Amino acid sequence: MSGASPGTVERECVEGYLYTARPFELWIFRRPPSRGGFWVPISGKVEPTDANFEAALRRELREETGLERPRRVLPLDWQVPFDAPQGGGTWRLTAFAVEVDPTWRPRLSAEHAASERVSPSKASVRLHYTDNREAVQRLVERVLPGLGPGALEPPHVFAQVGPELYRDLRERHPRRIALQVPAGLVRNAHELAQQIREATGAPVFLTGRACFGACDGPMPDEVSGADVAVVLGHAPIPNMVPPLPTYFVEMRHPGGNPQRLAEIVAAARLPERLGIVASVQHLDLVPGLERELVRSGYAPRVGTGDHRLAYAAQALGCNYTGAEAIAAQVDAYLFLGTGRFHPVGLALATDRPVHALDPLQETLEPPIDRGAIVRRRQLLVAGVRDARRWGILVSTFAGQNRTATALTLQLRARRHGREAEILTFSRTDPRDLEGRALDAYVNTACPRIALDDSDLYPRPMLTPPEFLMALGEIPLEPYRFDTYH
Ligand code: SF4
Question: What's the gap in Å between 338 CA and the centre of ligand 1?
Fold first, then answer.
């Protein structure tokens, strides 16, 4: 199904690879002889009436197999452009893994003549298209490490380190607890480890690698010997499967006065149609602030994002889909939290004025100058348009691994006569890129590395959409933020 020519994607399609966790097997489906008789996954076109790709997939699953309630739908971050039948231009497949109950059986439609549940290796042999086999490999890489005990229980979520967390941990009688502390809390890490050790009676090992984001959870090798993990400062990412049972302590902040914050907003005459976004630590303030804003004559809106966000109003530095969902109903966004990291991402993703309000200091920052950031990025893109030798960076962290994107970009680069080498890293470090015979990089890991830290690297570093701009496949305007789903 490969062989598409570069250019605009005319039609989006979705594919679902159905699997059971125990035993770890895949459902494959055979087309009728009149349609080639091949073994394939479930697939179909995204229709204008589908809210998003996942909705399209769920509709196809219902229509083609009768599946109403999958146990889990995980994006495989696998997109494959292909030539449509009868010269219909370039179409693109987006693949998902779909966990089903072991007792489930498909109810076949006219699309398929047979179905079978087989091991992943057998599925790889039987599936007709190379892309299908690569997607199975992707599914195995993404799902299999999580099929430890962590895959079978939902994440445990706590607001704070305290008696409730200790009680739950004690009841598990863990042999060893792996504790991960975000970069911003490392000063307190040893004190927190000591508290958990004393309160639970279990040995606590701190994972030494600094953790920067919600996707950056403990890796299987870091928790070896532990039977439970405690992750501080982050909410779970719903479409990520941790390697073992995980307790997320979100470090919610109880402070902040909604009435006072609404007064600050009104005094600054921010637009009435205001979208609210908050860091996880300040999400508890959102309902109260909404009420106070309504009292002051405002029309606040809160959006719900995709499967990478656990809460309404929440944002990740790579994903502002909650805010994007309400973009048509708001004239500006109010971000509750500290620092510029989220306001910059929000401004880039939504193209609306973003006002950052520190709920504890009660300070309102002037809007982010999106135009200046975009111009800087566009200049960077323009400067590497003629770069011949590209390095495509791929992170091996489960929550940042976009191997499929990297392979697609490599294909695109070669079609434009560029050399493109894929380099894998756990965490990218500028020193690892020194002395290489490459002109520029595209980073498929955390989008914020290219956007916020590119000055640290020895060569220009772009995000995947910026790379497509550099190849001339998409225009510089409107600027496209690199959203990670
Ligand atoms: S990819 Fe980057 S921005 Fe997104 S959750 Fe991970 S560290 Fe945060």
Answer: 17
User: For residue 447, is it within any domain?
Assistant: yes
Same domain? For 241 and 290 the reply is no
CA of 129 to the centre of ligand 1 (A): 32
Q: Taking a C-beta distance cutoff of 8 angstroms, is the pair 267, 365 a contact? A: no
Number of domains in the chain: 4
Q: Do the domain assignments include residue 484? A: no
Ligand 1 atom with the shortest distance to the CA of 397: 6
324 and 444 inside one domain: no
Atom 7 of ligand 1: nearest residue by CA position: 213
Give yes or no: residues 342 and 387 share one domain: no
Residue 443 is given by DSSP the state: E
Q: Which residue's C-alpha comes closest to atom 4 of ligand 1? A: 318
Pocket of ligand 1 (CB under 6 A): 212-216, 316-318, 399-400, 446, 448, 484
- What atom of ligand 1 comes closest to residue 445's alpha carbon? 1
Q: Where among 226, 249, 272 does a domain terminate?
A: 249
Q: Which long-range contacts (CB under 8 A, 24 or more apart) does 349-353 make?
A: 349/320, 349/323, 349/324, 349/481, 349/483, 350/275, 350/320, 350/323, 350/324, 351/327, 351/478, 352/275, 352/327, 353/271
Domain boundary among 368, 393, 417: 368
Nearest CA among 194, 215, 216, 214 for reference residue 205: 194
* Secondary structure of residue 229 in the 3-state scheme: strand
pLDDT tens digits in sequence order for the chain, 485 residues long: 433 344 577 888 999 999 998 778 899 999 999 999 999 999 999 998 888 889 999 999 999 999 999 988 988 877 888 888 777 788 888 999 999 988 899 999 999 999 999 888 788 788 888 888 888 878 887 777 666 555 556 789 999 999 999 999 999 999 999 999 998 888 889 999 999 999 999 999 999 887 888 888 888 778 878 889 999 999 998 777 677 889 999 999 999 999 999 999 999 999 999 999 999 999 999 999 999 999 999 999 999 998 789 999 999 999 999 999 999 999 999 999 999 999 999 999 999 999 999 999 999 999 999 999 999 999 999 999 999 999 999 998 878 888 778 888 898 899 899 999 999 998 888 999 999 999 999 999 999 999 999 999 999 999 999 999 999 999 999 999 999 87
How far apart (Å, rounded) are the C-alpha atoms in residues 456 and 253?
A: 33
Query: For residue 316, how far is its CA from the centre of ligand 1 (angstroms)?
Result: 6
Name the token pair of 143: 């799902």
Domain contains 190:
yes
Global confidence as pTM: 0.74
Domain that holds residue 223: 149-249
Nearest-atom number in ligand 1 for the CA of 345 is 3
